[in-house]
Amino acid sequence: MKNVILIVLLFLSNFFIKAQDNDLKLKDLNNLEWFKQARFGMFIHWGLYSVLEGSYKDRTMPDKSLPNGNSWYAEWIQARLDIPAEEYKLLVNQFDPLLFDAEKWVLEAKNAGMNYMVITTKHHDGFALWDSMVSDYDIMQTPYKKDILAEFVKACKKHGMKYGFYYSHWQDWEYPGGALPNWCEKRSETDFEKYWQEKSLPQIKELLINYDPDLLWFDTWNEECHINPQRRDQLIGMIRKHSSKCLINGRISFFNPGDNIDYLEMNDNEYPKEMLNKPWQTPATMQNSWGFHAKDYNWKSSKEMLTYLIYNISKGGNYLLNIGPKADGTFPIMATRRLREMGAWLFANNESIYGTSPVNINLGDDVYLTQKKIGKEHYLYVFLTKPVNQIKLPFHECKATTVLETNRPLDGHMENGTFIVELPSDLFRDSSIQVLKIIL
Ligand code: FHN
Predict the structure, then answer these.
(1) pTM, full prediction
(2) From the CA of 237, how far away is ligand 1's center (Å)?
(3) Closest ligand 1 atom to the C-alpha of 171?
(4) 348 C-alpha to center of ligand 1: Å?
(5) Which of 204, 229, 246, 336 has the largest CB neighbor count within 10 A?
(6) How far from the centroid of its chain's Cα atoms is residue 159's Cα?
């Protein structure tokens, strides 16, 4: 009997996961095309800092940026709480993520409607999550002693998930010559070049050759500081030499990305007002911090994050939403709950998100649009993030208007050259974002 129940449960869980497997066959699409269609991805900030969860000894990092502009992200704890490098390095003895299960992460992302994942392979602290031949400061020094990236990549491949690597090519607080937390305090060019040649470039090459990523996510956000056009182009050249598919983000050199990158990366939690002339995405947090901070209570609601996702899609961009896993390898429940809520909404409304394109019409601050053509039909999707009585569409005629999730027909009429759709107030009993489907 127990076995029968188990088989039924396995069947159901598999069904649930498959059900959310939107019909995008991303694995068959090349390079930029998959990125443009993917829409929603998961960012993962995970490393030694995850052991500390934002506190060290009797000190806790603030949960927001201070007026001097310093960010107090948990992954910055070494720098912000002035932990001496030798002391910080001892965290390798505590990083033992026995509950890490890469497949669970991938399935959680998939179930949330995400189509790619980007993990921090080395953050600014210089610690590598893989078995690196270039530096000993890596996962093999921890009690865990297993290559996290190898497991991650295997799970992504198994489930058709595109995968990318964040690599801190500029900041490195471990290797002599790597850029410092206070980025304006420059290293000498000779010192930085040594770090660049001995650690940064060889590790990136190692990532390309050993794991064949779909995307590399580089991180700069301020003035040029060491990553000048020569180094930027040298790095791009190396990537192109070793991979014909790997996408490169604009933050390889934020203020001067040049013409050879693949897509623009916004600043953290930044949402452009206009459409952009290149593919783009916003890296975004669920709490203030990227790495898990147990006392950062600034959790955004799933509706707020869905609104950002829809906003970006309506402007042709992607949304890369971050999770900071705990040091044991699990996602914080606060993150999981939000992911599942977003996934549930996307499950019901996915036709308005995937395979759509932006519409260059502004219907006001809280209303967003996408569109899709199927055969001869032209569909318009209207996202209502707040309750309204009616919407006015600049069209002479609409064939039909329904609520996407319920198929409920809505009344509409022409008035002074615009098509007005009346919205019954009970539509907003449900506080989630409502989507109207309009056949033009
Ligand atoms: O300093 C990093 C930060 O820790 C985090 O990785 C973000 C992600 O976009 N990038 C830098 C700040 O912009």
Answers:
(1) 0.93
(2) 24
(3) 1
(4) 33
(5) 204
(6) 18
